[in-house]
Structures are given as structure tokens and as C-alpha cells.
Write a structure and sequence with these properties.
By secondary structure, the chain is mainly alpha-helical. It contains six helices and four strands, in the order H-H-E-E-H-H-H-H-E-E.
Amino acid sequence: MKRNDSSTTPRAARLMERVLAIGLCMLLSLPPAYPGNIFSSQTPAEETESATPAANTSDREVFLDAQVALPVDSLPPTEVRADDYAYDESGRKIFNPSPTRAVWLSALCPGLGQIYNRRYWKLPIVIGGFMGLGYATNWNNNQYQDYMQGYRDLLDNDPQTKSYMDFFPPTVNEADLDHSWLERTFKAQKDYARRNRDLCIIGLVALYALCMLDAYVDASLTHFDVTPDLSLDWSPTLMNPAGGGNRPSVGLNWAFTF
């Protein structure tokens, strides 16, 4: 009997050691946040609080994850551009014109694009330019029509057509005038009036296109950064000659900062 007891005891001890080793390995394999892990440094209450940080922290903290919280004041400032945000700090809507809409409005009526871009000071320039060119076009066209009719009357053989005499005072006698000189004069005057009329029409078309271009560029550069840091520093300086001469040359040293 003693021999049987002595053989059974070592076998049971080895079995118990294996069970304990397996249990220890299972405990060590559990994650630290697992409620049943005895090696966790937090109590179940602390683990519950860490799992829901927003319920126990103030509004001045931002959580990067479940374990780290940073104050809002320590975060770097976020840049918000006017193109990305529709309202400013005071709650007013930021003016952000569309270049395409500005072009179409200016094409519909010259000056509407400038009004849309809130460049009201350009409106008198646009209106004055169109009124001046329109008046010049009409005046030169009337001159051209009058000289053209007088030139035609000079070339026909009808003695009743004498519209060219309307350009002279009533005391002037037609017989005292040189007919060839009248033809040359009326031809030159009608050509001159037609040339000025055509130039005024070209000016109207150019002004129309310029209004569209100005509206597009003005709307595109509304949020262009014009910072006071832009500066130009210049100073006179003496430059050594590149060829190895003895006399230095006087120059200008300048630096553009932006």
C-alpha cells in the first residue's frame, strides 16, 4: 500500500502543475481592458468611465482616442477660408461672386456684371463710354450720309439735284465753284466720316468685350490675398566689375518680399 501511495502522489502533482500553467497562460492572454483580467490596472468603475469620456468631461476637451484627452485651447488653430465657409464670425453671409454669372450678366447688359460684383464706381464709366461712342457713331454716320448724297449729286447729270450747295452759304454762286474741286472735297469728306463711324463701332464692340472681361476678372480676384506684408526694399549699391576692373560700378539693390 505504501508503494502505491508514493507512485500516485507525484502523478497528481504533475497534473495540478499543468492545470495551473494553462490557467495562468489564459489569464495573461486576456487584454488589459477585459473585465475578468486580474492584471488590469483599472477597476471596473474606472474602465466604464474611460469607455464613455464624453459623459464625465467638460466641453473644453477633445478626445483623440478612449484614453487621451486634450484641451481645445492647446490644439492648433484651424484656417477657414471665405471660399469654403459661407458666413463670417458675425453671422453675415460672405460675398463670393461667381465669375461665370458675372460674365453672363455683363453680356446681357453692359454694367450688370459690375453691379453684381459690387463695383458701383465703374458703372458711370461704362455708361459714359457707351453714350459717348454711341453719339460719335451717330454724328459721323449723319456726316457720311450728307457728304455721300452731295457726292452723288455732283456725279449725276440732273441739274435739279443740288444737295451739295447746302454746305455753302446762300450768297455763294454755283458757277463760281470748281466742279472738280467739289468732287475731290466731297469724296475725301465722305471717306473721312465713314472711317470715323467705323472706328466708333469698333470701339463699341471693344468696350462691350472689355466689360465682360472686367466682370470675369473682378469676380475671380474677389478673394485675392492683398496682404500688407507685400513690400519692395531698394537701396543704391556698389558692384564689383565682373571683368576684374579697378572701378566699381554704381547699381541698385532691391528685394521683393511677399
